[in-house]
Amino acid sequence: MDDRKKEFRVGIVVFATLMVAAILIVMNSDLSGSFFQEKYQLQIIVDQAPGVAPDTPVRRRGVLIGRVAKVEDTDDGALITINVDEHKHVKTNEKARILTSLIGDAVIDFSPVASPESAVAVEPGGPPLRGMYNPNPMDLIANLQGDLKQTIISLGRAGDEVAKLADQLNTVLGDQDVERLGRLVSSLEVAVGEFGSVMGNVDDIVGDEEFKAQLKEGLAKLPSVVEDASAILKVLETAVGSADQNLKNLQGFTKPLGDRGPEIVDSIESGVANMSELLGEFALLAKNINDSDGTIGKLINDDSLYKQLAATVGQASGAVQDVRMLINDPEMRRRIRQILDDVRVFADKIARDPARVARGFVPRNRELPIK
Prior knowledge:
371 residues
């Protein structure tokens, strides 16, 4: 009786353990909650789909969203149909990648390849989504086998060539050449030492903090100096272009002068001759003016003639003043205006009836002779 109780208790413990293990497995596996959810289908087209089969997990950013329903071989590639949970969505900015492990297990993962700002959910029934296959390390090693073999063969050939070169050097170089190489190495050591001392001196100069600050300041100003130099070069280019244009314009001006050179020289000689003749006439005129017997000479040299001319000008000025006084006199102005009005009326009557002038010279009671 005690043995049966023990077996019963052991059976209960084993059954409870199996139930708890099954619950934990279901809760922590990809199968948790997938049997009771509605699904919709999407299609993916890839060039190759190694390891992909029905029930292959489909993830989005590492989270399970569905499984593969079927895989079909088409002319465009492998067409994969997936079942996606109803409350899970694939966005248009995401791309399907087939990832495989070292043991051949495959998984389809959707990861973003563009900005999610304008991305929308992919609706079922549309065209297949374009996916890609990411090779695993084993595939890369398999692809590199041929290249590695060629590389090893090339390295072997290179080693043989190096060995041949070493043999040729040993054959060419004798004892004297070995001594020369020793001296060369010694000279090289001395040169390296001197170079070290030079670098020490350079380090003493460059290591100065003030020199470093000045060097940094100079390097900081270098871009502005380059910009100024570029601006100066542009200005010089513009000036050179303007000078070239001016030279071309000057050439266009001097070329006609060169073509008409003899004619221009003749014109200048003629102008000089005319100027000389004109200056001679001016000299003769000045001589006549200075001559006391001439009219202008008498006017300049004779004081009495000048006084008479001055008196005449004074009389003319007085006459002009008298005329102005007459014109400014209101009574005289009124009479002049009346005379002008009478003249205007007379001229108007004459213009209308010219015969009136003839009647004014012939008496009205005079009879004309009858012939």
